[in-house]
Structures are given as C-alpha cells and as structure tokens.
Amino acid sequence: SLHISLTMSDAAVEAVNATVELLVNATNATVKPWVWELNSSQISDKFQDASENLEPGLALAYGMLVLMAIIPIYVGSSLSIKHMPSKDKEKSEESEVMTQGDAAMFPVYASGALFGMYCLFKVFGKEYVNLLVGGYFFLVGIAGATRACRPIGEALLPTSLTANPYKLVFSQQVAENDGDAKAKETADKADDKDAKAVVVKPDDEALIFDMSFDYIDLACLGLATAVGIVYIFTKNWLTCNFFGLTLAINAIELLNLGSFKIAATLLCGLFFYDIFWVFGTDVMVTVAKSFDAPIKVLFPKDFMVNGVHATELAMLGLGDIVLPGVLVALLWRFDIAHGRESTKPYFWCTYIAYLLGLVFTIVIMHTFKAAQPALLYLVPAVLITPLFVSVVRGEFSQLWSYTEETPEEEEGDEADAKKDQ
Question: What is the maximum span of the chain, computed from C-alpha positions, in angstroms?
C-alpha cells in the first residue's frame, strides 16, 4: 500500500477551512444579505436616526469622496477625446480597446484575481503580500502620476523646457536581407573568403523601445517620485489620493470600450460580480481592508478634529470611479461624433446620474451601517439613463450601434472569434 502524508502549516489549514466555509455559505448569504423588516415605520426610523447621527466631519468626508469621484471622471472623459478614431491616424492617439469577449470574461478574471488575493492574505498575511504588491503599484503610480501631471506642468512651467527633447531608443540591428544572412552562414561553414559578407546598415534595426522626453517630463517624474517615497514611508492619505486620482484619470482616458454594446456587457457582468462578492461573502471587504495600495481615495471622518493627521478614514475604491467613468467618457465621444459637442446631452445626463447614484449609495451605507456594492446602484444609473435619453430623443438605434472600432479592427475581432470557435 502507498501511504502519502501531507503536512500543511497552520495558516494553510486555516485558509482551506475558511475557503470551504465561504463556498458553503455563499449561496445563502447571497440570497439574504441582510434581514430587514421592510415596513415603512422601521425604514423611516432608520433614516431619521442616520440623519441625526450625521456629524459635520462625517458629512464632509462623504462630500469629499463624491467630489474626488466626479472630478477624475470629467477630466479623464475630456482627455479621452484625443483618442477618438480619425481618418488622419497621425492626429489620433492609440488607446486600449476592449473587445466583446474581453468584456464578457472580465468579471470572471476579476473574480479569480480577487479570490486569489483573498487566499494570499489568509495564507501569508497582509504584511508580506502588501510588500510585494506595494512595489508594483509604486512603479505604476509614479508612471501614471508623471503622465497625468504633464498638462499641469505645461501650463505652469516655461515653454523653453520643452525645446530640444531627449530621445531614448532601444533597438536591435538586423541583417539587410535574408540573402546576405545566408551568404554569411555559407562563408562561416566553408571558410570561403570570397563569399558575400553581410552588410548591416544603420537603418536596418528592429525597434524595441522608443521614448522621447523633455525637462517638463523630468520635473513631473521628480514630483511623482518624491510623493511615492513619502507614501511608502508614511502611508499618508493625501499621497494615496494623489496616486489614486492620477491612476483614475489615466484609466478613464486610455481605456476604450469600443462600443456601447461592449460597455453594457461589461457593466452588467460587474453588476452581479459586485453583488456576489460583497453580499455573498466576506472576500471583497476583507481584501479591501487588507490591501494597502493606492487604488482608492480616502478622506478622514475626523478631519475637523485632527486635520491631515486624522486616522479614521472613509474610503471609495477606484473601481467604483473608473468602471462607470469609462462609459461616461464613451458617451462624451458619442456626443461629439454626432455633432453635439456644445450640449453633450448624453454625457451630462449620465454624469449627473452617476453623481446621484453615488450619493444614494453613501446614504444607504450610512443608514444601514453595512458595506455596499456601489455598482449595485451605479450600473443601473449609468446604463438606464443614456438608454432613456436615446428613447426620448428617438436615437436608440444610433446609440446601440455606436462603435469606435475601425473596419480593420472589426475584421480582426471577427477573425479571432472564428479561431476561438
């Protein structure tokens, strides 16, 4: 007989037990996240108690979280205009475009990553995980902050700093043509001195990396690095917000959903993703509390008492800003594409709907003293609003069929889909 003995650390055993218990209780917890007696008198009493317990410092914190959500959405949306498809490819800048398949699978990938982080925290402890992940976000945060700060640097610093930019190029020299390469191989083997030698010209290079920068970029990089060092050693909420807001602006600007259909697919999937992981398990809340990285915006509840040294922090995750924000940005570009640049009805209606949805989320969270999946309220707000506006204006088919993919990209997507089948 073959006897196999497995030894596991106490931490690993505890993680396995927690995982089994989580999966067993997930279904019941999802169906009944809270046990509320839904009668008018009790709900009225809860709202009355919540309003009475709303201290000025807490109200300030909630208001600042809302402000730090709507500002990057507006700024990122306005910057995303330069990434609109254009006949002149030199005028339009490239951005990451999500496909229909990517949108459908995104909640699955996000669930895997979220649960993986949960298991890492259970097995190794948050100190070691945050040490590793913190280094990654330190570099990403500096890069994102440098890019986001450049427009401010251009406005404040002398234009002479942009003259004579530097260029960093990393390339590999290659043979002029296949015939020359074969000739050299023949010469090496036969030791034929008369064989044709390979001629490598300066232009025969495979470009691997190409970046140009000037003194404004260096100034922004210095500022971002200094803030990053302060964040590493102090974890101050102001430095966290600096990186969080710049990351949100960059994400909203650069992430292109491609079409309204793709946006609807993505947000509908994330709607159920957020509900399950917040109501159905403790995974989302545990990771959010344990994960120490600048992927959130913070404001102290006791700011009026302790100022910048306050420690009781209210939090809003960047996902609740960026994910609805990329749809709001898409609607701004939709308005411009159809000649409504001055009024932007779809953008403004959806932007206001996001604001109201976020306020409603905070009201519910404060009233019932329970963690809320913000996308439960934000997704219907930002999806139903543009659809309602399109129906009222008689432009539903125009909105639903709107796409920013070029014909070449659409053909490539169709070819990839056929390969997958």
Answer: 100
Catalytic entry in 49, 178, 180, 274: 274
The answer to whether residue 274 is catalytic is: yes
Q: Directed axis angle between helix 56-79 and helix 237-254, to 10°?
A: 30
Exposure on the CB side of residue 343, measured as CA atoms within 13 A? 5
In the chain, what are the helix, strand and coil shares in percent, each to the nearest 5? 70, 10, 25
End-to-end CA distance of the chain: 45
Q: How far is CA 127 from the centre of its chain?
A: 24
Q: What is the pLDDT of residues 108-161, one digit of tens each?
A: 999 999 999 899 888 887 888 888 887 888 888 999 999 999 988 888 888 888
Cα angle value 386/389/390 (rounded, 5°): 85
**Catalytic one among 203, 204, 320, 413?**
320
Distances (CA, A) of 177 to 93, 199, 360: 32, 9, 65
Q: What is the CA radius of gyration of the chain?
A: 27
Annotation says 320 is catalytic: yes
Placement of tokens 């993703």 in the chain? 273
User: Distances in Å between the alpha carbon of 298 and those of 136, 164, 236, 324, 378?
Assistant: 20, 40, 10, 19, 19
Q: Which residues contact 347 (CB under 8 A, 6 or more apart)?
A: 77, 328, 331, 332, 334, 335
Give the residue-averaged pLDDT of 234-260. Answer: 92
